TrEMBL record:
Name the record gives this protein: NADH dependent phenylglyoxylate
Superkingdom in the source lineage: Bacteria
Domain FAD/NAD(P)-binding: 7-302
Record InterPro entries: FAD-bd_OxRdtase (IPR050260), FAD/NAD-bd_sf (IPR036188), FAD/NAD-binding_dom (IPR023753), PadH (IPR054806)
Entry's family note: Belongs to the FAD-dependent oxidoreductase family.
SUPFAM superfamilies: FAD/NAD(P)-binding domain
Cofactor: FAD
Length: 417
């Protein structure tokens, strides 16, 4: 069995891992640093995958970092290195091919993996998921010969894919068991505006329906819980993801929905950190542990983990997960930050404005806790900071409600220097 050692070992090569690597090198320029990736491709962002399916992004141009970046940062990237086990007591990880890496400090940034819902016959029907570059390439090849597509799930991945497939000329239907699209981010009115845009572009939106059974080859036959029967040449399952924690099964590292971490991204195991879509950290608004699988959170968590691993005294502990999503669809633009879908009541005030677009502002005690906007110019990053800083908006309340972008920017320039 081949064994190697690294001072810093990072498992996972997307945003959290890359940010951790950069943070480590800012404080420790020399310690041996190795990044293990389970894929054969250079590191890339999962957010680029719909554009690979559409052909707008070429596979060879998706890399977040190339060989020269790793060389400049004195880091080693090991591809096709899938970790199947972690032994914190021995400070070692085991790879699928039998290799073994030992470490002084380990970061688990393994991301998330697709979830297949319990549908009768689904495992026997040809279907696609969209989480890796190889997934995107396979979906693109199949779409070139298909006429009818069904997308299971109306989250960000499902809607991106449905738009791409429709623009490629396919007849597309979206099946979603919840009554609203993007329900975890947007309120029902904003969700309805997004759904209506998809319907105007010829996509059939079957909301509040559940896929019960699947059978056949091409076309496959799909039966919904209300008796609706669909046929599809292409089936994409985009019903959600879960943190990729299989390599921890039976081990001592504490998990719930994801790997449980503290505000420094430390796990319960000495010398082990976790960050990104695999980590479960406290939420900013709720204070309860949650998985917050967004790109900004992956970057923030990775930076904190890397600083702590390297012993950087300037580290500011994680303040809690706060969702921030931006979404472009059919030439329109949507933003959701914080508790944008929170209903009125229990001390929460909601202000909605549809002039020149749609904007929903959620306040509690004159402090912003969420905002959703469609075709309105807002700065999600500044709004995210307003929520984090619990900025009292009482002195500028009316101006903020009518002009959130300008008011937020003024607050930033006045008080955040």
């Amino acid at each position: 069995m081949t064994e190697s050692h690294a001072k810093y070992l990072i498992v996972g090569a997307s945003h959290a891992g890359r940010e951790a690597l950069a943070a480590i090198r800012m404080h420790d320029p020399e310690g041996r640093l190795v990044m293990l990736s389970g894929e054969k491709h250079l590191p890339y962002s999962p957010t680029i995958l719909p554009y690979v399916v559409s052909g707008r992004s070429l596979p060879e141009r998706t890399a977040l970092a190339g060989a020269e970046w790793f060389a400049e940062n004195r880091a080693e990237l090991v591809l096709d290195a899938r970790v199947t086990g972690v032994d914190p007591a021995a400070r070692a990880v085991r790879l699928a091919d039998g290799r073994r890496w030992t470490y002084d400090r380990l970061l688990l940034a393994t991301g998330a993996e697709p979830v297949l819902p319990p549908v009768e016959g689904l495992e026997r029907v040809r279907h696609h998921v969209l989480r890796t570059l190889d997934d995107a390439l396979a979906l693109r090849r199949h779409a070139a010969t298909a006429r009818r597509a069904v997308v299971l799930g109306a989250g960000l991945v499902g809607l991106h894919a449905a738009e791409t497939l429709a623009e490629a000329g396919l007849d597309v239907a979206v099946v979603e068991m919840r009554p609203h699209v993007l329900a975890e981010y947007f309120d029902p009115r904003a969700s309805a505006l997004i759904r209506e845009t998809f319907e105007r572009h010829g996509i059939r939106m079957l909301m509040g329906r559940r896929l019960e059974r699947a059978a056949g080859t091409e076309p496959c036959r799909l039966g919904l819980d209300d008796g609706t029967e669909l046929e599809a040449d292409l089936l994409l399952v985009a019903a959600g993801v879960r943190p990729a924690t299989a390599m921890l099964a039976g081990g001592p590292i504490a998990t719930d929905r994801g790997i449980l971490v503290d505000p420094r991204m430390r796990t319960n195991a000495e010398g082990v950190w976790a960050a990104g879509d695999v980590a479960q950290a406290d939420g900013f608004l709720s204070g309860r542990p949650r998985v917050n699988g967004t790109l900004p959170e992956a970057v923030e968590q990775g930076r904190i983990a890397g600083m702590d691993m390297a012993g950087d005294a300037d580290l500011v502990p994680y303040g809690g997960g706060l969702p921030l999503n931006t979404y472009g669809f059919f030439g329109r633009h949507a933003v959701a930050v914080g508790a944008a879908a929170t209903p009125e009541g229990e001390g929460v005030e909601v202000h909605t404005d549809e002039a020149g677009g749609y904007c929903r502002i959620v306040l509690k005690d004159n402090r912003l806790i969420g905002l959703a906007a469609i075709d309105r110019l807002v700065d999600g990053g500044i709004l995210w900071r307003l929520i984090q800083r619990r900025t009292d908006l009482a002195p500028v309340r009316d101006r903020f409600l009518s002009h959130p972008l300008e008011t937020a920017r003024a607050l930033m320039s006045q008080g955040w220097r």
